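User: I'm writing a short methods note and want a consistent example. For FAR1 domain-containing protein, I'll paste the sequence; you return only the structure tokens, no commentary, since I'll be parsing the reply automatically.
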Amino acid sequence: MLDDELSDSNLDGNGNLINPLDQHFPMTMEHREPYIGMEFESAEDAREFYEMYGRRMGFTIRNNRTRRSLKDNSIIGREFVCSKEGFRAEKYTKKETRVFTSRPATREGCNAMLRIAAKDGGKWVIYGFVKEHNHVLNPSKIPPRRSHRIAFCEDEKDLKIRELSTELHREKKKSAAYQEQLQMVLNYIEEHTQRLSLKVNLVSNNLRELEYED
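Assistant:
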């Protein structure tokens, strides 16, 4: 009987199996928690989702790593981390000649992060997620949201520059190949002209010799 009750609790009114994730989190994207396999239309959508999730939980995020394809240099992976990830470099914390008082440390070695990867078809999927933080989370202390679109614009601009540079390099190689082929044709024409000129001279000399003999 208990098994029947448990089975019924996992079915909706139409007898369809309910996704446990949908039971725990509302369907609106703003209130869902990240999970492995979660898909997004773009990397920017994924970052915005993680940022909203972080603000709701009480932490801010930043870009950490970007992976690019070895084939065409396109962006195929991103990693977003808690702003308290890592530690401040010692050169900033132990500088003896420091004139001004150093700012309070904001990095505490937190390992919370979200990793996404590009899928065939243009979508992005979460393949890495660490939920736990090593510090207190306080939503009330999160500063006003700052637009992150500038960071993506910089990435897109950098990618465009790389694409244009690659295209320019490719066109230069084509141009060099065309020049080499053209030079080969010109050399052939020159050699052919020289051979033809020699033949003309030879015929002309032969005619002169015949005239002398007559």
